[in-house]
# Entry
Amino acid sequence: MITGAQLYTVRDYIQTEKDFTFTIKKIAAMGYTTVQISAIGKDIPADRIREVCDEAGLEIVLTHNSADRILYDTDALIAEHNLMGCNYIGLGCMPDKYRSTDWISHFADDFLEPAKKIAAAGKLFMYHNHNFEFEKLGQKRILEYLLEAFAPDELGITLDTYWVQAAGGDVCHWITKLKDRIPCVHLKDMAVDHGTAVMAPVMEGNLNFTQILQTLEHTNCKYLLVEQDICQTGPFDCLQKSYDNLAAAGYR
# Structure
């Protein structure tokens, strides 16, 4: 498994081509060799994104895209991923309208066709979880509806360790349950600050990352992507601490 950086962590520093280029060089200097493209400035074209990352020695392995682009601009999105050399096309969050008993089935109705088109192009549609996917609608969790509606070659899960824990789930249980669907995972830790759960660099909080990483070894996981939505000590510091801790554990 290869350690990468989720660029949402540094979203404020990738809105222009100049800032993006500088930030990518900083991330490569930390030791990372892969990145996820997310929340990047809209005016930076895919071929330039690829060029900047290639120059820094960084492979683009996953993206997050708007629901509208996945639904209504699928062919162009696939073409952009071909330019970037990226095989995983991700959705960062389920739109609000689907999160009810009446509407959850509509998610598959809407997204199955683009998912099949993405699969036919040799890529995989990836869904990133938060905590709400562990809410039950009737007898099943939202996440379980997705697993039943899509085959593994139609939908992968970008499992987020923090949000599983935030939902009260057992991270290792869900890693095992999803072992054939998680080529990419998001790693972030959970700490406590004055009684409130906060995000923390990997291995700086209270999640059992020794067990988490050992469990991931028995799955189809290829990429360990460090993400910090909210950083207590600055995004670049969080990425560096996480990389150093993972590297010390044997994951680079």
In short: The chain is about 40% helix and 20% strand.
